[in-house]
Each structure stands twice: as structure tokens, then as C-alpha cells.
Amino acid sequence: MYAIVENGGKQYRITEGETIQVERLEGNIGDLVYLDKVLALGSGNDLKVGSPYLEGARVKAKILDQGKGKKIIVYKYKPKKNYRRKKGHRQPFTRLFIDEIKEEG
Predict the structure, then answer these.
(1) Across all residues in the chain, what is the average pLDDT?
(2) Domain assignment of residue 14, given as a range
(3) DSSP β-bridge partners for residue 4
(4) What is the rounded average pLDDT of the residues 13-23?
(5) What DSSP designation does 29 have?
(6) Is the pLDDT reported for residue 103 higher than 90?
(7) Count: domains in the chain
(8) Which residue, 32, 33, 100, 104, could crosslink 56 as a Cys pair with Cβ 3.0–4.6 Å?
């Protein structure tokens, strides 16, 4: 069984036992989180699609890690004007282990 969930403006196709990296979620390492924004559930040839979300469907996941991604450099400049700005950015993330995909009803 697989599910398509929405988190942080992005969509992820997940299965049970899989590890995914999503936008930062509140919680500590080892906490359980529930992803309620399930767009679709599928198994074999059977596919259920919500409009926009499926009622009663949710995904149970465990927080494995909280961290920051690789640093990217943001550099702005205007030629011939002596204007230069250099900044670095590291996007925070949460690594999740998918325990269970549940459909109620």
C-alpha cells in the first residue's frame, strides 16, 4: 500500500517502512507524528483519490532526526555599482520513518 501526502507545500509518495525527509516539523527525536493531508491511497490496481484530501486517512510516522541541509550561497550584485551581498542558507528538515498508513471507514 502506498500514499501520497502533502507537507510543506510538497507532495511525497510513501510506503510503510520507508524513510523520507520533509520540511521541518515540530517535535523531538522519537516522537510520533500524524500526517493527515493524504491526497491519495493506492494498493495494486486500486486507487482512491481525495478532493482535495481523503477523509479518515492518515499516516503515522516517527521522527528519526532533526537537522539542516547542505549550505547554499545566495549572492547578489549589481555591475558597476559596487553593490555585493553574500549570504548562506541551510534549510531545516525532519527525517521521518513511516510506521503505518491507515484508512478508516
Answers:
(1) 94
(2) 2-103
(3) 13, 40
(4) 96
(5) T
(6) no
(7) 1
(8) 104
